Amino acid sequence: MAPVDVVVSGVGVAVSGIAGPDDLLRRTPAGADGDDPARRLTGKGLRYKDRATRLALCAGRDALADAGLLGDPGLTVPGETVGVVVSSNYGNVDTICDTVSTIAEETYVGLSPMALPATASNVIASWLAIWFRLRGANLTMCNGSTSGLDAVNWGRLLLLAGRVDRVLVVGVEPANAPVRHLVSGGRSNGEDDLRLFDGAAALVLESASAVRDRGVEALAELGPYARKADQPAAVAAIRRTDPRPVDMWFGAGAGGPDGMTEQTSHDLTTYHGHCSGALGVLQCVAGTAWLSGHDRGAVLATSDGDGSDAAAALLLTVGGGR
Amino acid sequence: MTALVVGMGAVASIGGNTVEFFDSLCAGYSGLAELRGFDRSRYRAQHAYEIDDRPAPGCDETLRASRWLEQAVAAALADAGLDEDLGDTPVLIGTTLRELRSVELSWRDGVPFDVRDLHFGTALRKRFGATDTHTVANACSASLYTLGLGMDLLEIGAADTVVVAGVDTITESTYGLLDRCYPEAPEQVRPFDRDRRGMLQGEGAVAVVLRREADGPGPGHRHARVRGVAMNCDAYHPSAPDAKSIALVTREAHRRAGVEPADVDLLMLHGTGTALNDEAEAQAVREVFSGVAPSPYMTAIKSMTGHTAGASGLHSLVVAVEALRSGVVPPILNLENPIDEVDGFRLVREHAELATLRVAQVDSFGFGGLNAVAIVEKVS
């Protein structure tokens, strides 16, 4: 099969205090007192959707619009040609926990049938598909700390395998009491220093030729990806495939690329808290924003494998369209 | 591109390995029993198809799904002649509910649970040294979706051997909400019967080792050939299926596999015994197989396994592979008054039938309108 260049053609973000992808490059806390991004979405059909779904719809809409795929109304391309990949570890944990609490207090009779779809962890990807009429292959990755970067790579694999022509990738996590319980092992009461990310990031992937055919800009190009036992192994695997110098590193911890300084690295968790399944997509959106301000260069995104089953790394470079 | 199934492992209420699993189905042995792990006073429904491995009646524990997954993967690797050190070999795990049962026990009862065990990569890293693991939460079509993704990895050359798997346990949240949704509590799963009341959940795990056929001889068996897998999304409703979209994905699977409807000898139906699924699936089958007479043999395993959710697609595939090889098609139990929509379908009922089979189709559909259809072929 001929190699295909896969590029980012649109980005979106839904985080309190963040107006757009460029704001992810600010080295200051996002400021939790900003407007709730989920309120940007209005209209019928939002009842019964959990917070993660609402956040994902906001970021997803921005990414599709940025890619020039949202017409008035509907998509500018056939729905069967668009796939969805969502990354979230905690998206429906609140529904699960609220439901067992209700069963304990009131038996099954106290439940609302409308909560049933959200007991399955694919509910976010399912609503994205329904909301935007995306009928292609639809995946939900719940893959721990590497999940976001894994999701971006699965989006690329769907393109390479010829399953779809473009993919909406969304990373999202909600902050709430059940997530806090789960992440802290039951030890956090909300008044300690555990900071949970509450937001979503989204990007659209297409082949470079599809982007050219549509006459839109390639914002960044995907380079190699690896999921390995730890961060040094993941980074080394990328360097073997593409040894070009890294200009900006989105990551933290031991075993990152050589020669990085405070100025050439961004640890998004410092400003946005524990991002879990959203992290990799958030890094790629931030990396795309950084590349948009440069004529050349390479950005490396990594998930620190410290304490996890694995680490992942993904390289982004300036898109071929400029 | 075609791939060979070179190893298989399966765990369910009706058996702890593929031989027990298939023999139970052919013998009409069901895993249906009264609820074992939950407080029954909280529910109207009282039955499920659970694996009977809890430490004591009414006492539940964490990480049961992870344990069954390890068991199924270990069996599949042994069957494939591979050692247990997986390293960079990709493992794709389809699931609806991950380790969310453990989350319930942690939240409500304070049972210790490490968040890193919520996805299955952690357990697979510890047991098999696996680093390229992917937990795909694609509802009840999840493991057939992972079969399609595994085929893609082989086709684009990203791997030479892939392990695809599925696993699910029953959560109280899903059990309780299903109980709340159905007009009457089901006492058993009755696919395609007029008196079906809905589905009851089942527990289990399954794993399949795939290799590119073009690579030539290698370790393991030549159980069957996977000719193609199609997957799509209805983009229509969060839980109700769409017959048109199911027909589309079926035709796409035939196209990818290079087969015509008349080539299909055996159809493993998704057959959940819910009002909506069985109607939509039958409509789609009627549309795609119109003019094919007699129809393919058709069966569905959930009357004996319960709905094993994320594992169900590959559970059906394992049955298809064993049926192709043995010429024995297990029956659908509890099908006394078939719905009009299956009129003329050659459904295998009550007793196993002998048949000469070459090509089988496996259906798997899930919440969110996630559909996957696979075509497998007998290897001579």
UniProtKB/TrEMBL annotation, chain A:
<dbReference type="InterPro" id="IPR016039">
    <property type="entry name" value="Thiolase-like"/>
</dbReference>
<dbReference type="Pfam" id="PF00109">
    <property type="entry name" value="ketoacyl-synt"/>
</dbReference>
<keyword id="KW-0808">Transferase</keyword>
<dbReference type="InterPro" id="IPR000794">
    <property type="entry name" value="Beta-ketoacyl_synthase"/>
</dbReference>
<feature type="domain" description="Beta-ketoacyl synthase-like N-terminal">
    <location>
        <begin position="47"/>
        <end position="179"/>
    </location>
</feature>
<protein>
    <recommendedName>
        <fullName>Beta-ketoacyl synthase-like N-terminal domain-containing protein</fullName>
    </recommendedName>
</protein>
<dbReference type="InterPro" id="IPR014030">
    <property type="entry name" value="Ketoacyl_synth_N"/>
</dbReference>
TrEMBL record, chain B:
<comment type="similarity">
    <text>Belongs to the thiolase-like superfamily. Beta-ketoacyl-ACP synthases family.</text>
</comment>
<dbReference type="InterPro" id="IPR020841">
    <property type="entry name" value="PKS_Beta-ketoAc_synthase_dom"/>
</dbReference>
<dbReference type="InterPro" id="IPR014030">
    <property type="entry name" value="Ketoacyl_synth_N"/>
</dbReference>
<protein>
    <submittedName>
        <fullName>3-oxoacyl-[acyl-carrier-protein] synthase 2</fullName>
    </submittedName>
</protein>
<feature type="domain" description="Ketosynthase family 3 (KS3)">
    <location>
        <begin position="1"/>
        <end position="378"/>
    </location>
</feature>
<keyword id="KW-0808">Transferase</keyword>
<dbReference type="InterPro" id="IPR000794">
    <property type="entry name" value="Beta-ketoacyl_synthase"/>
</dbReference>
<dbReference type="Pfam" id="PF02801">
    <property type="entry name" value="Ketoacyl-synt_C"/>
</dbReference>
<dbReference type="Pfam" id="PF00109">
    <property type="entry name" value="ketoacyl-synt"/>
</dbReference>
<dbReference type="InterPro" id="IPR016039">
    <property type="entry name" value="Thiolase-like"/>
</dbReference>
<dbReference type="InterPro" id="IPR014031">
    <property type="entry name" value="Ketoacyl_synth_C"/>
</dbReference>
